[in-house]
Amino acid sequence: MTVILGQTFTGISIGAVLLLIALGLSLTFGQMNVINMAHGEFIMAGAYTTYVLQKSISGAGLSLLVALPVAFLVAGALGALLEWVLIRRLYLRPLDTLLVTWGVSLMLQQLARDIFGAPNVQTRAPDWLTGNITVLGGDDPLTFANSRLFILALAIAAVAALSLTLRLTSLGRRIRGVVQNRDLAEVSGISTSRVDRTAFFLGSGLAGVAGVALTLVGPIGPTMGTNIIIDAFLVIVVGGIGQLRGTVIVAFVLGVTQSVLEYSTTVSVAKVLVLVAIVAFLQWRPQGLYTLRTRSLV
Amino acid sequence: MAGAAALAATVALTACGAKTDAAGGSSDQAAKADTSGDTVKVGLLNSLSGTMAISEVTVRDSVKLAIEEINASGGVLGKQIKPVSEDGASDWPTFAEKASKLIKEDRVAATFGCWTSASRKAVKPVFEKNKSLLFYPVQYEGLEESPYIFYTGATTNQQIVPALDYLKSQGEKSIYLVGSDYVFPRTANKIIKAYAKANGMKVLGEDYAPLGSTEFSTIANKVKASKADAVFNTLNGDSNVAFFKEYKSAGLTAKSMPVVSVSIAEEEVKSIGSQYLAGQLTAWNYYQTTPGAANTAFVKAYKAKYGQDKPTSDPMEAAYTSVHLWKAMVEKAKSFDPEKVKAASDGITFDAPEGKVTVDGASQHIHKTARIGKIGTDGLIEQVWDSGKPIEPDPFLKGYDWASGLS
């Protein structure tokens, strides 16, 4: 029983990491229709921001908390810059965005290698995040790792913030308007180019926050983004492109499935099984779990 | 046509076979080292980027130190050694491609490098085909011999078997195996399982994570649920960072379930953080704390060159030693020719930082002392046990009955 609960928690925590990564992608890929291959490098930017801050701020806990908003701003600024320099010229050519942003991702990786060196680096987690809490006592205690709980809380906070922004603010209404029908939004007086850039800022900023979270799990390196970005794309495609609800549900389902399969088989077999399941699902529902209903012609 | 040949040369392993001949004449000719001037080139082939860079950069630095020392004392056969460094980028086809480049374009007299067994397996046919020498400095899974590779790290009977003997002597009756998913851990675990069966030890589980993987929560849960007495860790590179973070988060400690690692040395301890590792065990042939005048001098020279905060480790020591062994072989052979160097290798000795080592000409491995160490809170490793004298290399474990079914 303990094993099942522990494994479910592990799955949820893997899901939370996936969700944090997919959240920003859901905004830029889902809503803006840009296949941003550089999203993984924005995650990396967030992680390296944490590393740099830790070098200058002595307390590991304080530096982590400072890193969250700073990484959001750094990655967000990178995203907005990318949008302004390149992507805004390519909105009608989604496949070109893939190639261009892939090139950008390679350049950013090399830049990171030049600045921070090729070997991966690590940050020190604050003491209050290295331990665990005991949920069930007894001979076979069920424990939850503090760092994983922190990431879960971070993911929930990010989802809430994004969802409230999209639902309640005028910026959110404008983003939704542009997503549903770009032309109609434009003629209604919405500056679509400004909305695009802001959405890109938010989406990339969330990648930065994901990067901070990832420093608690593993090492920081120039290629850390590429390792996880594929999983994030999977979450979005299966969840339904541009659907926040789908992203959240699929991230957790995928995390739990993965961890349960890993437990009963091996890591590699679990990966294969998950991919097969995804292919089967997409055969049945190519549009993903949820779809956007619009009156748009395309 | 030339373009096509160049393209083929960049396409990994297969390209290092027949096709490259078109670009560089017959392979025998291409392999001849260029010793016409007053310098001799040697190749340094290490991952300077990617998941293995954390470990391999230190090995390159250590080889460079040995080269500098030899040059300062007059070089080899009156020639100064000129290192040519290449980045294998933690990618096995790249290793093969760069090995081919070092041999054919730079015409090096010998190459020092590789860390993972996968990279060694990838370059092995390249060195064999071109009849050029590779000095491989890292402990490995054994069950291999190549006429053109000198293995200066431990083979299994000088590291893994002593580690298992140590666990047995400590009364550990059940173990859990965790490793990276490639040739070294899989072969090592095969050996461990055979040993366990013959010695009344239970293997409660065996898990592999892809090389470079950083998601270890499930594996940590499985290890914890198994209630094994100890964990045998064959993870490589910075997967160890993620693994030990998760291990601590799961509430496991060196007291409750010790981990014996065979691929974590001082450099890795430093970057993983001793707060995650204190009290855990490692099995090697050398530690920075190993006593002896040769080691004192080595540690001092290394720190003077690369920084006082830089630790020395077993693969670095083996790499450093390998350059000195090569020099001794060349001087005995009075030639840089790989065949003559090989013929002169048997019985060559060197007062290495780990103690006196002797080359076994038949297997091209060396006699090494086995040591078990405990990681301290200061990040250094204190020896808790050693084999007392150098152990004769036995890469195919011929000396053990339980190993008869292996290889």
Helix-strand blueprint:
The complex is a heterodimer of chains A (298) and B (407).
Chain A: H1 2-31, H2 39-56, H3 60-85, H4 94-116, H5 127-130, E1 132-136, E2 142-145, H6 146-168, H7 170-180, H8 182-187, H9 192-214, H10 224-239, H11 244-264, H12 267-284
Antiparallel strand pairs in A: 1-2
Helix pairs in contact in A: 1-6, 1-9, 1-10, 1-11, 2-3, 2-4, 2-9, 2-10, 3-9, 6-7, 7-9, 10-11, 11-12
Chain B: H1 2-10, H2 12-15, H3 21-24, H4 27-31, E1 39-46, H5 53-72, E2 80-87, H6 92-104, E3 111-113, H7 117-130, E4 134-136, E5 149-151, H8 160-169, E6 174-180, H9 183-198, E7 202-209, H10 217-226, E8 230-234, H11 239-249, E9 259-261, H12 266-272, H13 274-277, E10 281-284, H14 293-306, H15 314-333, H16 338-343, E11 349-352, E12 355-360, E13 365-367, E14 371-375, E15 381-386
Parallel strand pairs in B: 1-2, 1-3, 3-4, 4-5, 6-7, 6-8, 8-9, 9-10
Antiparallel strand pairs in B: 10-14, 11-12, 12-13, 14-15
Helix pairs in contact in B: 5-15, 6-7
Q: Explain this structure to me?
A:
The complex is a heterodimer of chains A (298) and B (407). By secondary structure, chain A is mainly alpha-helical. Chain A contains twelve helices and two strands, in the order H-H-H-H-H-E-E-H-H-H-H-H-H-H. Chain A has helices spanning 2-31, 39-56, 60-85, 94-116, 127-130, 146-168, 170-180, 182-187, 192-214, 224-239, 244-264, 267-284, and strands at 132-136, 142-145. A two-stranded antiparallel ribbon of chain A has the order 1-2. The longest helix of chain A is centred in the N-terminal third of the chain and has 30 residues, at 2-31. The radius of gyration of chain A is 19 Å and the shape is globular. The relative contact order of chain A is 0.20. The model of chain A has no long low-confidence stretch (mean pLDDT 88). Chain B is built from 16 helices and 15 strands. Helix content of chain B is 41%, strand content 19%. Mean pLDDT of chain B is 89; it is low at 1-30. Chain B has a seven-stranded mixed β-sheet, with helices on both faces. In chain B, strands 2-1-3-4-5 form a five-stranded parallel β-sheet, with helices on both faces. A three-stranded antiparallel β-sheet of chain B has the order 11-12-13, with helices on one face. Chain B has 407 residues and is α/β, with parallel strands linked by helices. Chain B has helices spanning 2-10, 12-15, 21-24, 27-31, 53-72, 92-104, 117-130, 160-169, 183-198, 217-226, 239-249, 266-272, 274-277, 293-306, 314-333, 338-343; strands at 39-46, 80-87, 111-113, 134-136, 149-151, 174-180, 202-209, 230-234, 259-261, 281-284, 349-352, 355-360, 365-367, 371-375, 381-386. In chain B, helix 7 links the parallel strand 3 and strand 4 (134-136). Chain B is globular. The chains are: A mainly alpha (298), B alpha/beta (407). Chain A binds chain B through residues 2-3, 6-7, 10, 13-14, 113, 118-122, 124-125, 130-132, 141, 143, 145-148, 214, 216-219, 221-224, 227, 259, 262-263, 266-268, and chain B through 48-51, 53-54, 57, 87, 181, 207-210, 212-215, 217-219, 221-222, 225, 238, 241-242, 245-246, 248-251, 271-273, 275.
